[in-house]
Amino acid sequence: MSSKPAAGDLGRDDLVDAPGDAPSGSAIGTPSINIMTDEREPEPQSSEASTPPTSPTPPVAQPRPMTDVDRKNWAMAAHLSALVAIVGIPSLIGPLVVWLMKKDEDEYVAAHSAHALNFNISVLIYTVAGAVALAILGVATLGIGLLLAIPAVIVAFILWLIFVIQGAMAASKGKEFRYPLTIDFVK
After folding, report:
1. Against a cut of 0.70, is the pTM above it?
2. What is the mean pLDDT of residues 35-41?
3. Which of 156, 161, 155 is nearest to 85 (CA)?
4. Domains of the chain: which residue ranges?
């Protein structure tokens, strides 16, 4: 008689490998499962050092240093971006965006965008103060004072436009530019 039981005669205990026995029919590197406890048995350690598989990581793009042309263009954009005020957006938004984006990348761009931002914040303050003064003047003079105020507002707008263009031209030439009557809020 043979010592092997027939295929139909296998009991549950016959399916579990004894501790220390090599798993029957399993290839090296594939874990065997103990049916009685539903736990994975530890894989036998091979003499070769195995390294865990790693997924390839995509290379991280390093920002390239700013060229002189890039530097001048960003500084000029800091000044000219204030012109969004013409379409109703506050003039300080454009220089603020450039300053936040480039303040840590280049000192020249940071200086020009800070100057443009400070100027436009100052203009906003002067505009609010002027509007309050014009309202008081208009009420006090029964509207006659507004006849003087309208040309003053037009002249102030033209001066603002000239200063913004002068700042952009200075930036494009690589020169420093300081706006007049500017309060330094941002350094």
Report:
1. no
2. 59
3. 161
4. 68-172
